[in-house]
Specification:
Elements lengths: L1 H18 L4 E5 L5 H10 L3 E5 L3 H8 L10 H9 L3 E3 L10 E4 L14 H10 L8 E4 L7 H11 L10 E4 L18 E5 L2 H12 L5 E3 L3 H32 L3 H8 L23 H10 L6 H11 L1 H15 L8 E5 L14 H11 L3 E5 L23 H5 L3 E4 L8 H7 L3 E3 L11 E3 L1
Parallel strand pairs: 1-2, 1-4, 2-3, 4-5, 5-6, 7-8, 9-10, 9-11, 11-12, 12-13
Antiparallel strand pairs: 6-7
Helix pairs in contact: 1-7, 8-10, 8-11, 12-13
């Protein structure tokens, strides 16, 4: 009875501080997910403390500067004026009432889940945890991660999850560059290790999100995120396969998709491209395929889509090589300009961009590579890729000087009419050029 009263007291005190906006919010990881969330909590009146291991990010934020293109520095400056601050000092975790973990979950070189960022972050937080805190994981992962990896580490400190501290999983749903949806308007799924954990998590997110969707467990919340992204990966795999079939048959797959999309029911258009990009869709399906093996299951459908999507950069390069060959040239020695190296239109996000793989494949074949991307002026240092390149200004003279213009990401800032007029050869992976032209090759 005394234990139940203590647990209820910790829960009720935390709920009151959340509802009265007295709770201090700690956001761990200040990237594409963590920073918008920090700004949103600050916007509604919470005191927010951001944690990151990158001192340059911390210095920029505390100076009121943004390092993410679609997040204005003015928004960061406004947040700092309201009390938002960032730090590399994780001992200050103790002062936070709610801790939201927003760190990467990539794949390792064997295409298996790499939880090193999640586990390393949790191990860093654990010595500073105390009674009366909420810990919420937002990083996409396989079902069971929150209860199997975070819960034992938290309880190793002697804190009881569901009584002393509260543990949730609430998957991120950020879509960088999408002006139609914001952190506030995208519904938030939340599952807790216990009912009390879920209650606290729902209360917290309900302060900043218009609609919170409770689910029965952290596993259900983890699986929800995977299903969302596997749904997209499988459908993109389907249209990428359709692209190959249509190409062989002399049919424009984009024309077919546009026509099919006129059906008012039963069809949702997905569009082919040079491969999958972003931190979620190329990666998340493999988190489930890995976990499914523990249960003796082989996720054939998911893995087949992954094979199709993974093969797209190679298919595009082969189309480019064939187009050059028809003009009496080889890839080796050709000057190739890659248009767009961000993973999707009108953002500066380079994570898992298929453009990078295209560049590497072409360099392996001996091509001379340059790129133009108004959102990425200098090629950034990435964990696995780096080129000593800067964005080439697009002028008629520059475009005409390349043997091939490879359209990889269809940014709205590109002058497509000018490019079509002056380019010797265009390889279009995005279906930008609708009308047939002798120097435009669809890939």
């Amino acid at each position: 009875m005394i234990v139940q009263q203590v647990a209820a007291s910790a829960r009720d005190a935390l709920l009151r501080s959340i509802r009265e906006k007295r709770a201090r919010i700690g956001i761990v990881g200040l990237g594409y997910v963590g920073l918008p969330l920090a700004l949103r909590f600050t916007e509604v009146g919470f005191e927010v403390l951001g944690f990151d291991v990158d001192a340059s990010k911390v210095e920029a934020l505390n100076s009121g500067r943004s390092y993410i293109e679609h997040i204005a520095s003015a928004a960061v400056a406004q947040a700092t004026s309201k009390g938002f601050s960032a730090t590399v000092d994780f001992s200050r975790v103790t002062s936070a009432d709610a801790l939201i973990i927003c760190v990467p979950t990539p794949l390792n070189r064997f295409r298996e889940p790499d939880l090193s960022f999640v586990i390393g972050t949790t191990d860093t937080l654990v010595p500073y945890l105390r009674t009366g805190q909420l810990v919420s994981l937002e990083s996409t992962t396989y079902p069971g991660t929150t209860d199997e990896e975070l819960k034992p580490r938290i309880e190793s400190r002697g804190l009881r999850v569901g009584q002393d501290v509260f543990l949730c999983f609430s998957p991120e749903r950020e879509d960088p560059g999408n002006i139609d949806f914001t952190t506030r308007t995208i519904p938030k799924v939340c599952g807790g290790t216990t009912a009390a954990c879920r209650e606290v998590g729902v209360a917290l997110y309900g302060q900043v999100i218009d609609k919170v969707v409770p689910v029965s467990s952290t596993r259900a919340a983890e699986m929800t995120k995977l299903l969302e992204n596997i749904h997209r990966a499988v459908n993109i795999g389907l249209v990428n396969e359709m692209k190959i079939i249509c190409d062989r048959m002399g049919i424009d797959v984009h024309e077919v998709i546009r026509a099919a999309a006129t059906k008012p029911f039963g069809f949702v258009p997905y569009w082919p491209g040079p491969g999958l990009g972003g931190h979620c869709i190329p990666i998340d399906p493999f988190y489930l395929t890995w976990k499914a093996r523990e249960f003796g299951l082989h996720t054939r459908f998911i893995e087949l889509a992954g094979e199709v999507n993974h093969a797209m950069p190679g298919w595009v390069v082969n189309k480019l090589a064939a187009a050059l060959n028809e003009r009496g040239r080889a890839v080796k020695g050709s000057r190739i300009l890659v248009l767009g190296i961000a993973y999707k239109r009108d953002v500066d996000d380079m994570r898992e961009s298929p453009s990078v793989e295209l560049m590497e494949l072409l360099i392996e074949r001996g091509a001379q590579i340059a790129y133009s991307d108004p959102h990425v002026p200098v090629f950034p240092r990435m964990r696995e890729h780096f080129f000593e390149l800067s964005s080439v200004p697009l002028t008629p003279q520059a475009v005409a000087s390349y043997d091939v213009v490879l359209l990889a990401t269809n940014h709205s800032a590109f002058d497509y009419a000018m490019i079509a007029k002056h380019a010797q050869l265009i390889v279009d992976t995005r279906g930008v050029y609708l009308e047939p032209a002798s120097h435009v090759v669809k890939a």
